[in-house]
Amino acid sequence: MTAPLSIDAVEARCDTLLAAPDATLAASAPALADELLAMGEVILDTWITAKGDVPTEDTTEGFRLLALHRQAARGNASFNACRETCREVVYHHNLVRLDPTSADAPRNIRLGAMVVRHLTLFIGGKLQVDGLGDFCCSSRPIRQADTSNFSTEPVKVMEA
Amino acid sequence: MADTKKYKKVAYYPGCALEGSGHAYNRSTKAVGKELGLELVELDNWNCCGAMEVKNIDPKIQTYLSARNLSITEEMGFDTVMAPCNGCYHNLKKAEYDLGHDAKSVEVNHRLSEKAGHGEYKAGKIETIHALDWIKEAVGEEEIARRVKNSLKGLKVANYYGCMYTRPRHIFPEKDKGPGTESTSKPHFMDDILAAAGAQNVDFPLKTACCGGAHTLSDSDTSTKLVLNILTAAEACGADVVATECPTCHTGLEMHQIRAEKVLGRKTNVKILYFTQLLGMALGLSSSKVGVQENFSDSKAFLKSKGLG
């Protein structure tokens, strides 16, 4: 199956998977595990493309999603906030792939879909508010946006 | 045998949130400390850590604001300050890192400290710890288990740490040092403490995921969706309770749980409680003693059904 191409489509697809009955998920567990991983890549591709970069085709620890996260986080420390979310996408993919006939496979697919949906919401939100600066763990100053188009140069210290 | 555990008496930096929306966390942290025989001495005349807002205007000012609190800690004769709020904890840690690695931060802190007329804080003098470090190190799981009067047995808990407790990794050099230390990728101190109190921790994939707390006003709909996703994931993992250790996360989860029901028509039943509230009740404290009545959501009937509080 071809992965959805937009963030909104990924979110909608996650909702569909979450609502699907166990039997449907169990019947195509390996394919759905791959699809979830691919959807994670689509989200990161969208972010990196929006930033004017070319998404990498490399892999990190065997997964392109982790390489994409590393690429997106370079020079943008706030991207750390979805580091574990990306790793959880990979983890749930591996859980299902390791034993696709397990009784837990539908549950693991649903949890994987929730993790992918979180990635969608987080990065979708970042795309919307990027110009405002990040009020989070590794925020960059708003003034940088005004003066240097989000450069990583230190800002002028405000006189107290 | 002499008690060699650390952090029995530490300086306490509650931060602004614990005087307002997170007051239940303040109340329960103090109550748990008292019950466990630990001493907290609140910093005199502490100031806002700069939270996220000041950092967005000028990160050096944020470093100075946190450095001032570290300077007060030193002046009061302490070598350790405990901050239960993830934002405060993060900012004190960041100030410590910046003052140890960035000459410009040192220069600005020197200038502003001089101008304000107080001692200049220099890196390496004070250790900043979180409430989780405090209880884990000063008491430990074995002692907690021994002191439990009202086990959390039967309570399924999703431990939610939020995004600032472990990030960015470089400001937490004591983490990821192997067995016994906290992990930045899979934090477990809260899991360890509540398990010692009898809780059954569920495997929860979003324990460090963003709750959208910082954008709760500028982009409420995204925050509501992020929180709803966290809460539905916790329920899918079988949790009765989401345990928190940050007032911003906690308030966000509670507020957006209500908003998700009102705006999106999506009701979740999982309860949201500070880990200090759960631990306090396990130690035999009443629900009012740990401030359950101060939470936005009403979990009293649920707690009663579990024999707690």
Brief overview:
The complex is a heterodimer of chains A (about 160) and B (about 300). Chain A has about 160 residues and is mainly alpha-helical.
Could you please describe the fold and organization of this structure?
- The complex is a heterodimer of chains A (about 160) and B (about 300).
- Chain A has one domain.
- In chain A, about 60% of the residues lie in helices and about 0% in strands.
- Chain A has seven helices and no strands.
- In chain A, helix 3 (about 30-50) packs antiparallel against helix 5 (about 85-100) and helix 5 runs antiparallel to helix 6 (about 105-130).
- Chain A starts with 6 loop residues before the first helix and ends in a 12-residue tail after the last helix.
- Chain B has two domains: about 10-130, Glutathione S-transferase Yfyf (Class Pi), Chain A, domain 2, CATH 1.20.1050.140; about 150-305, Rossmann fold.
- Chain B is about 45% helix and about 10% strand.
- Chain B is built from twelve helices and eight strands.
- Chain B has helices spanning about 25-35, 55, 60-75, 85-100, 105-115, 130-140, 140-145, 190-195, 220-235, 245-265, 275-280, 300-305, and strands at about 10, 40, 80-85, 125-130, 155-160, 200, 240-245, 270-275.
- In chain B, helix 8 links the parallel strand 5 and strand 6 (about 200).
- In chain B, helix 3 crosses helix 4 and helix 4 (about 85-100) packs across helix 5 (about 105-115).
- The longest helix of chain B has 18 residues, at about 245-265.
- The model of chain B has no long low-confidence stretch (mean pLDDT about 95).
- Chains A and B meet through helix 5 and helix 6 of A and helix 2, helix 3, helix 5 and helix 9 of B.
